[in-house]
Amino acid sequence: MSLTPAELTSSVSGGIGSSPQRPDGHLKVRGEFAYASDLWHEDMIWGATLRSPHPYARIVSVDLTEALKVPGVYAVLTHQDVPGRNLYGLEHKDQPVLAVDVVRYQGEPVALVGADHPETALRAMKRIEVEYEVLTPVVDMETATEDTPLHPGGNLVRHVPVRRGDQNASAEVVVTGRYEVGMQDQAFLGPESGLAVPAEDGGIDLYIATQWLHVDQAQVASALGLPLDKVRLTLSGVGGAFGGREDLSMQVHACLLALHTGKPTKMVYNREESFYGHVHRHPAVLHYEHGADRTGKLVYVKAKIYLDGGAYASSTSAVVANAATLGVGPYEVDNVTVDCWGVYTNNPPCGAMRGFGAVQAAFAYESQMDKLAEALAMDPVDVRIVNAMSEGSVMPTGQVVDSAAPVAQLLKLVKDKPLPPVSTTVDLRDMPGGVSNTTHGEGVVRGVGYAVGIKNVCFSEGYDDYSTARVRLQVINGEPAALAHTAACEVGQGLVTIMQQIVRTELGVQRVTILPMDTSIGNGGSTSASRQTYVTGGAMKAACAAVKEKLARLAAGRNTTDLVELLGGEVIDETVEWRHRATEPLDPVTGQGNAHVQYGFAAHRAVVDVDVELGLVKVVELDCAQDVGKALNPQAVQGQIQGGTAQGLGLAVMEEIQTADGKVRNPSFTDYLIPTVLDMPPMRIDVLELADPNAPYGVRGVGEPPTISSTPAIVAAIRAATGLALPRVPVRPEHITGT
Amino acid sequence: MRVNVTVNGEQRQADEVWEGESLLFLLRERLGLPGSKNACEQGECGSCTVYLDDVPVCSCLVAAGQAQGREVRTVEGLAQGDRLDPVQEAFVEAGAVQCGFCTPGLVVAAHDLIRRVPDPGDPEIREALAGNLCRCTGYEKIMDAVRLAARRARS
Ligand code: FES
Ligand code: FES
């Protein structure tokens, strides 16, 4: 006999489609959840990193003598102590574990100290003498490829052209613009940290907060000159990620210190070091030209997009591809000429951050759509709807969008909501400037703005993107119990809950235990590109199917579907590797190809009050509509939309790592501001569930789309209130007051 | 230096405490209570919030020595055995916890608010939590959690 899901799920709760509590929730609210920075080991030492104070310099000499004399110091290491390859990187191996003879950004690691107390390590670090010959940094992304080459192959990391249709198309109405996006930081709250424990077999066990265990493992093993099986990683508690943990930070460093001293070594960055210790969102300069006919229908879009990758490549190649392929937004355009360049400079390295590539492009193309509406005296939502793509539309890459693309519907949903009333009583807390008492309503103007965005989900361009899941089913204490194991990183988003839900639904088992994520199982892929529920969810579903097949064999010829009876003393243990459908590389000349797996869409409406005299902005309301395919956990879906929207608000009006000649001017939460509860307005959310037939359960990646449309919607609202062009984010008070 | 301090009702002692160490470091690294978090160590994020003699403070801004002879209550001291404090319960239920790094500080701040103001309105909740950063949730579900906890505390 075979078992149907209905027979198996009859009695379980907390399956897919519901919002059960997180399995780690209790530990987290009690303060008992072990984050990487909470780890402790008998006899452990503390590591510290000496970083370059210069954006670009030659290292003339390094003298460790005085540092080694500090009592309590166990080791002081430089690049000479790196036993394996001193270069690593996600896509190009161009970044030194420790600098050799040149430093290419301020904050580049030069030496390491291991000591008995973090303070001892810092004191010793200050006694390391490094002599630098300071060089003139390359800091302008638009001219970087013509400037001093910072790497052997020059300063171009990647150029992606996209060509579709008539390259010489002309139109009745033309709008142009130059836009800029500042450097945003992920600003996850849990600092970079980990604990490396030397093992008896000469290998190392690393407990770490990361987004991708296996890619860390490969890079650490290569730097240490160890085989993969001697480098074992276990995920510890992760305090948020948002892309900022996809690259290595202290992983190799802690392992080097541990292997040198034979002592467990802990490293924890403080907030300032965190700003230097991870990659940021690429700043961008974007030149756009939109041509349309009198009805608002787009005839062509031309764009030149520059992305500043900073000193090392990180994921710049993928960011460039996203900005190029998604560069016209969720619109149908027959004639497209887009070029995107990612370059090296001596600015801080940039890489993955939520919505990468799509965020930068969306600020420009949505600003352009508003400009077009203005030129045509059309409603900004109408001009978008006239051009909105839908299922069956063709992307500028030639790829046909083969599942739901409800762009017009999402826009209508946010537009049709009633607008918040203009408050008649003055509550300072609702005013721009808040209780600083800067206005009682004088000079305050309201504005409303809209935006919609598009994001690719999963890894693209032919990448072999897969995940591995293992499920073990047996009877424990007279009850069926399942164990689920993956290496896919829980970074806060709630993947552990989703995994439990899938197993409950598929196997009809209430008790599902999630094993710690580690490298003893196969690759789970990265927690990025909104891909884990899709890919590791797909793998978990497939592992359950394999378990069910075994169960069906046990059931053959027997007259029961009761798991306890069926299983008896048997243990079913299945591991499955699961891939989403394959993608293709982009043609290097035309940018054509079925490069993406799936597209996700979200739309926002922002309502703002602007104190036009002081340039202060209060976002009054921020509504969002998003298609998620299928909400496996509705509460978590909302959490992603709310959190993603908040990060978009941050980019719109406050968040930027400011650099001057390559130096970071605001590496602290005092000077780099992220939204507080006072900055975030109430949100109304519409979630559509238009299943994607190609995806497990029909899911569509959720995490990134809301970050994309939130920023341009807010800026559109500020423009509506002020009449200003505002071509740059974040919008600062002086952009509004003009002083 | 030696520091004697009552933490979550227990008399604790730490030796060889350095001059510059914060109460946060003392709790986390010397007393085995890492529940209070270290997101900025500069007084900007609230993740390290604890009660010091019943007043919520950023423990990263308090020198360990200043806690000498005083009473500290941390997030680890809110639940009664297995029973979560209503604020903790509401945070889990409302989905106010994602990565959870902000949670200990927010739970203490919300706990303090509800003690002082049994029926806080939204503006009061926002004001009370304004010193606590959260990067994951966009705060909506944190607001839900505090409203829920306050409602339950009243009933
Ligand atoms: S760690 Fe104390 S306020 Fe941030
Ligand atoms: S839940 Fe991650 S910072 Fe608040």
From TrEMBL, chain A:
SUPFAM superfamilies: CO dehydrogenase molybdoprotein N-domain-like (SSF54665), Molybdenum cofactor-binding domain (SSF56003). Pfam families: Ald_Xan_dh_C (PF01315), MoCoBD_1 (PF02738), MoCoBD_2 (PF20256). Residues 1-21 have a biased composition (Polar residues). Transmembrane segments: none annotated. It comes from the Bacteria. InterPro entries: Ald_Oxase/Xan_DH_a/b, Ald_Oxase/Xan_DH_a/b_sf, Ald_Oxase/xanthine_DH-like, AldOxase/xan_DH_MoCoBD1, AldOxase/xan_DH_MoCoBD2, AldOxase/xan_DH_Mopterin-bd_sf. Residues 30-136 form the Aldehyde oxidase/xanthine dehydrogenase a/b hammerhead domain. Residues 1-25 are annotated as: Disordered. One of its GO terms (molecular function) is oxidoreductase activity. PANTHER family: XANTHINE DEHYDROGENASE (PTHR11908), XANTHINE DEHYDROGENASE SUBUNIT D-RELATED (PTHR11908:SF157). This is CO/xanthine dehydrogenase Mo-binding subunit. It comes from Saccharothrix tamanrassetensis.
From TrEMBL, chain B:
Signal peptide: none annotated. Keywords: 2Fe-2S, Iron, Iron-sulfur, Metal-binding, Oxidoreductase. Its EC number is 1.2.7.4. InterPro entries: 2Fe-2S-bd, 2Fe-2S-bd_dom_sf, 2Fe-2S_ferredoxin-like_sf, 2Fe-2S_ferredoxin-type, 2Fe2S_fd_BS, Beta-grasp_dom_sf, Diverse_Oxidoreductases. It comes from the Bacteria. It holds the Pfam family Fer2. Residues 1-78 form the 2Fe-2S ferredoxin-type domain. Gene3D superfamilies: 3.10.20.30, [2Fe-2S]-binding domain. GO terms for molecular function: 2 iron, 2 sulfur cluster binding; anaerobic carbon-monoxide dehydrogenase activity; metal ion binding. This is Carbon-monoxide dehydrogenase small subunit.
